[in-house]
Amino acid sequence: MEVGFLGLGIMGKAMSMNLLKHGFKVTVWNRTLSKCDELVEHGASVGETPAAVVKKCKYTIAMLSDPAAALSVVFEKDGVLEAICGGKGYIDMSTVDAETSTKINEAITAKGGSFLEAPVSGSKKPAEDGQLVILAAGEKALYDEAIPAFDVMGKKSFFLGPVGNGAKMKLVVNMIMGSMMNAFSEGLELADKSGLDPQTLLGVLDLAAIANPMFRLKGPTMIQGNYSPAFPLKHQQKDMRLALALGDENAISMPVAAAANEAFKKARGLGLGDLDFSAVHETVKPLKPASS
Amino acid sequence: MELNKSDSGLLLPRRQTAVFSSHLSLCLFCFCWALFCTLSSTPNSETKNCCIQSRDHSPTYCPFVFFFCPVSGLQRCLRRGMKLALKPSYGKLLCPAPMAVITSQASTTFCPPVPARLRVRGWPFSFLPGGSPALAVPVRAFSASASASEFPERVGFLGMGIMGTPMAQNLIKAGCDVTVWNRTKSKCDPLTSLGAKFKPSPEEVAASCDVTFAMLADPESAVEVACGKLGAANGMGPGKGYVDVSTVDGATSKLIGERIKATGALFLEAPVSGSKKPAEDGQLIFLTAGDKALYGSVSSLLDIMGKSSFYLGDVGNGAAMKLVVNMIMGSMMASFSEGLLLSEKVGLDPNVLVEVVSHGAISAPMYKLKGPSMVQSQYPTAFPLKHQQKDMRLALGLAESVSQSTPVAAAANELYKVAKSHGLSDEDFSAVIEALKSKQ
């Protein structure tokens, strides 16, 4: 199966690499073309522009960092829209708000193409290990055709209905995750300040009803103050913001998410935006000179 | 059958006709069994000198040795073989020699290691071939266990609520001598019907017991039961212990501890993580602090009621750890509630959200357990909302005492307060989702 892949960041690189390793023919594009080099070494072809990739491939997957990038790849000069047509499918796995996704869907389908939004739950390591959770919505026929690729990139896929549902589900999940990370940070710091060993807290949590892989994975590195990015804090804050906007539109009370979002904003203000989102831990500590 | 004691400490049969023929059939059985074992033996076995390593590395001779001995000299062969091969540890199993060999061999290939305490008691199931399922002993993270004779003799239990009742029941079922008390006497009936004794005050319970546990709802009740008129402290003294498994703040715990220790008794704070079902299943996590000696002597009791325990040092540390854990839990539940509600309002199926969460990095047993009933707006009480709010409040107090900002916990606490004001105090703490819903 031949697929195009737009966007070779933390996620895109790992996902396209998995496709290559499992025998897919992949044509890649990235705004900074040099990022394609490693994929080329593993057998990928390069498209000079998103349009060139879409022209060549029946299916094109996109993995961009935010709504602005997702829109730009579609609508700008030499973008996806210039080459999309009947018989071709566009699968956007970026995490964006429902309006952005709807806008892209309308433009793609107006040109005869089929569209699937398919944001993922999981960060760098699950992407590398092919263990993502894929939250798809849009055209069911395209979903069925994409399953071989989804099975390589992920451990579980969901088809959630019309365009917008995938985006919303992703935002809800990441909203809970962002609040949990804040709760966890508060707990770690409180344990430390109360004279307890934070490692012991990790041990207790791991046996309790609130044990989860995120605490298990991030706890030790947070205690050491190591925030090497698997999921950049700026993207997590973007997701909180989009989730809160979703709540705003529907007049839903979300005080915990709002408090968590404030903490992520504060962390960005401290210059921690490019670190892992667990760096929000630094915001509950006494003020220190910002480290990067 | 007259028996000789060999040098190895084994009891061996003397030469008698009836015994002889039974040994012949025994040897035939040994041969078949040995053949079977050897063919399916683990890589540990060294076949060249017929010496098979058992699980605790005591070598035993392959039963082939016995088969090849002339029948008339069988007894001598057996005795010599056993003397050379078997370590004294196997001598504690009262069995004829060939069976002892089968035992160790069976344990190499078929049986999981029998825990020391069971082996010492002469656990008979070692004889059964392929007895793996019967020998499966649940692995506990916490291994300081003791035989029945090492339990503190008389155990008191104050507070027969959601937690106290199943905890005391587990102690009774394990064979402990338990005396109970509860402010409302009728709540003791499920315990007395199982054989527990009843005393009409904490003081009398403490006076008649070696160790007294207390499981009360909040700091006020914990202090009243320990230090009030007719309180447990009045019945304590040297040689006794008081274990408070209630969840309270550090200051309350220290107050109770000082009052107890003033009587000469030992004190342990030991709040638990886990609610109704873990209490029923003996799967609680004890977060203990205080007198280490008392922790040691109640380990066997904690082992009955729980799956693991931590000793955290000075009084106050157990309380703090419990509050930190429950603060995280309270925030997580509030956040999960926001997610469920948001998903529903924007046209998603909240049951699908629960499923999506269960596959990802934030998958927690609590979500899997509570999610489905929350979607149905049902909140069967495992952990009352009023107690969760109490814990949030105490955790915020702890944070304040160390000047730490906890905005998410503070926001979550507000939701629990709102839920209480809606009359949901006695529902499960998952009812906090109702605080987010707009009321018609």
TrEMBL record, chain A:
It catalyses: glycolate + NADP(+) = glyoxylate + NADPH + H(+); 4-hydroxybutanoate + NADP(+) = succinate semialdehyde + NADPH + H(+). The keyword NADP applies. This is Uncharacterized protein. Belongs to the HIBADH-related family. NP60 subfamily. Residues 164-281 form the 3-hydroxyisobutyrate dehydrogenase-like NAD-binding domain. Gene3D superfamilies: N-(1-d-carboxylethyl)-l-norvaline Dehydrogenase, domain 2, NAD(P)-binding Rossmann-like Domain. Coiled coil: none annotated. The keyword NAD applies. SUPFAM superfamilies: 6-phosphogluconate dehydrogenase C-terminal domain-like, NAD(P)-binding Rossmann-fold domains. It comes from the Eukaryota. Keywords: NAD, NADP, Oxidoreductase, Stress response. GO terms for molecular function: glyoxylate reductase (NADPH) activity; NAD binding; NADP binding. It comes from Punica granatum (Pomegranate). Catalyzes the NADPH-dependent reduction of glyoxylate to glycolate as well as succinic semialdehyde (SSA) to gamma-hydroxybutyrate in vitro. May function in redox homeostasis and play a role in oxidative stress tolerance by detoxifying glyoxylate and SSA generated in glycolate metabolism and GABA metabolism, respectively. Residues 2-161 form the 6-phosphogluconate dehydrogenase NADP-binding domain. InterPro entries: 3-OH-isobutyrate_DH-rel_CS, 6-PGluconate_DH-like_C_sf, 6PGD_dom2, 6PGDH_NADP-bd, HIBADH-like_NADP-bd, HIBADH-related, HIBADH-related_NP60_sf, NAD(P)-bd_dom_sf. One of its GO terms (cellular component) is cytosol.
UniProtKB/TrEMBL annotation, chain B:
One of its GO terms (molecular function) is glyoxylate reductase (NADPH) activity. Belongs to the HIBADH-related family. NP60 subfamily. PANTHER family: CYTOKINE-LIKE NUCLEAR FACTOR N-PAC (PTHR43580:SF2), OXIDOREDUCTASE GLYR1-RELATED (PTHR43580). This is Glyoxylate/succinic semialdehyde reductase 2, chloroplastic isoform X1. The keyword Oxidoreductase applies. The lineage of its organism: Eukaryota, Viridiplantae, Streptophyta, Embryophyta, Tracheophyta. Gene3D superfamilies: N-(1-d-carboxylethyl)-l-norvaline Dehydrogenase, domain 2, NAD(P)-binding Rossmann-like Domain. It catalyses: glycolate + NADP(+) = glyoxylate + NADPH + H(+); 4-hydroxybutanoate + NADP(+) = succinate semialdehyde + NADPH + H(+). Pfam families: NAD_binding_11 (PF14833), NAD_binding_2 (PF03446). Catalyzes the NADPH-dependent reduction of glyoxylate to glycolate as well as succinic semialdehyde (SSA) to gamma-hydroxybutyrate in vitro. May function in redox homeostasis and play a role in oxidative stress tolerance by detoxifying glyoxylate and SSA generated in glycolate metabolism and GABA metabolism, respectively. Residues 154-313 form the 6-phosphogluconate dehydrogenase NADP-binding domain. Keywords: NAD, NADP, Oxidoreductase, Stress response. It comes from Punica granatum (Pomegranate). The keyword Chloroplast does not apply. GO terms for cellular component: chloroplast. Residues 316-435 form the 3-hydroxyisobutyrate dehydrogenase-like NAD-binding domain.
